Amino acid sequence: MHAYRTHNCAALRPEHVGEEVRLSGWVHKKRDHGDLVFVDVRDHYGITQIVTEVDGPAFAVIEALKNESVVTITGKVTARAAEAVNPNLPTGCIEVRATAATIQSHAHELPMPVAGEAEYPEDIRLRYRFLDLRRERLHQNIMLRSRVITSLRQRMNAQGFTEFQTPILTASSPEGARDYLVPSRVHPGKFYALPQAPQMFKQLLMVAGFDRYFQIAPCFRDEDARADRSPGEFYQLDFEMSFVTQDDVFAAIEPVLHGVFEEFADWQGKGRTVSALPFRRIAYRESMLKYGSDKPDLRNPILITDVSEHFRGSGFGLFDRIVSGGDVVRAIPAPKTADKSRKFFDDMNEWARGEGHAGLGYITQKGGELGGPIAKNHGEEATRALIAELGLGPDDGIFFAAGKELAAAKLAGAARTRIGQELGLIDESRFEFCWIVDFPMFEYDEDTKKVDFSHNPFSMPQGEMEALETMNPLDILAFQYDIVCNGVELSSGAIRNHRPEIMYKAFEIAGYSQADVDTNFAGMINAFKFGAPPHGGSAPGIDRMVMLLAGEPNIREVVLFPMNQRAEDLMMGAPSFVSARQLQELNIRTLDPAPAKPGA
């Protein structure tokens, strides 16, 4: 018999009754029934119930066990009585009557219990992450992550992609988020950077003649945490293709994403559906108008409408002045809100103010009876014409976001999401994918008072050099695209600008000289001068995909060892101070933190 186990803790079934077996695992729960003691032993695979009588040969050892101690049990498989069968456990029809027990490792008093799914403070969970990972939900999330990555690899290989590994130590880039810098010992004063993404390397692979590349790529960005973004590091399905159009990129990656989401749509019995192929394509400007976001949740049926012209010269002076000044009014329907009190509408208005906006105007309806100050001032005839154009019923309310176009769009989008949640309109049983396409190449930066890149400076402008030379920069669109699922942006991508003369011109419009481009992007621009194929790609986020499939609201729940909101690893004590000798080897001198200002 094996020293530790003949079976894992999920393997035993009624057909094993009568066999002598050996199991090893952690003590999940222990129950003392007087003349009998029951112990649930858990390993990576599942749980098996162990039982011993008070006069049994293993009783003394089992009685002394504390939860989460590691134990090896030898015994005989027996059938449970009919009334004792546990239908929720794969091993629920049997138990093991212990004949011997060995404690492999004693557990101290636990800072948090493993059995059960009660919530615990973040600092406890992260400091004792190895305990947190023993809990069933989190353990299963990490296993889901592994299976998703395996499935992605298999599907990418089937699509003719080849996996390569790009460097981790690279050069700092002036674009994008803050770099994590690594000092060089042999080159005093110089630093490597951890890659924010393998962007330049994957494009260089295309220049090098490789046709379809992918990798499960680690990426490092010194940016603040969000629910859908880990601080420090994350993983993405990075891929690039040569001699392709935007349609070719979509055709290659859509079956991969659709297949993975279909494969795991029923994870833990959730029974979700996935939007059909091909995924819907929505132009950026249409998305900002109808959904108030470039990452729309298509499960929400609410559509935003521009109603500016309805208020030009109207009796509602505030909106009339806004529209006459060149700004906009957007309407957000609130379906079937006749049974909602005025407090619902006032609370939405206060929420908008709490988000830093002037507020949300509204019109109420109950059986076609109009309510609210906007309807009163706008006039019944004009209000009913507005309602008819929006296609609303007699019990549907309306919220309004007004102001500068971008600010009004963002408020309307946030209100659309909140109304959808408050009214229970979002169908949680669906994964709805879409592509956001036709992003503007440039935007006007109000702070710097100049034209700058709006999305990705290395994208090919639609119309190429002719567009750059003849069009208003703010009207130029790019071959840029985002893939979005349920309101979560999985990745940005683009058909790349592979021609140096077009790249120089695009950067010139954004205020960069040819010398700036040659200095900051030397590796890529030099390579392009030796023959670069048309190419494009994208990089869907692994963490975000798994978060969606697991149904988790926070990305931390699908990452093995995440940092906290302050980018600290509480378990390993990182970041940490290093010795003076280490700093001296790296030719680095540290500064004391600046003293806090009085009253700060």
Which properties best describe this structure?
five-stranded mixed beta barrel; alpha+beta; eight-stranded mixed beta sheet; 24 strands; 600 residues
**What is the helix fraction of residues, given as a range?**
25-40%
The overall average pLDDT, rounded, is 94
CA gyration radius, whole angstroms: 30 Å
Task: Give the strand order, joined by hyphens, for the main sheet.
Answer: 6-9-10-24-23-22-19-12
Structural class: alpha+beta
Number of strands: 24
Flag low-confidence runs: none
Shape: globular
End-to-end Cα distance: 67 Å
How would a textbook summarize the main sheet?
8 strands, mixed
Short description:
This protein is an alpha+beta fold and about 600 residues long. The chain is built from 18 helices and 24 strands.
Helix and strand layout, with pairings?
Elements: E1 20-32, E2 36-42, E3 47-53, H1 59-63, E4 70-79, E5 94-105, H2 122-127, H3 129-132, H4 136-158, E6 162-163, E7 181-183, E8 191-193, H5 199-207, E9 212-221, E10 232-242, H6 246-263, E11 273-274, E12 280-283, H7 284-290, E13 305-306, H8 317-324, E14 328-334, H9 342-354, E15 361-366, E16 369-371, H10 373-378, H11 380-390, E17 397-403, H12 405-422, E18 430-431, E19 433-437, E20 442-445, E21 450-453, H13 464-470, E22 480-485, E23 488-495, H14 500-509, H15 514-520, H16 522-528, E24 535-538, H17 542-550, H18 580-585
Parallel strand pairs: 3-5, 6-9, 11-18, 12-19
Antiparallel strand pairs: 1-2, 1-4, 2-3, 4-5, 7-8, 9-10, 10-24, 13-14, 14-17, 15-16, 15-17, 19-22, 20-21, 22-23, 23-24
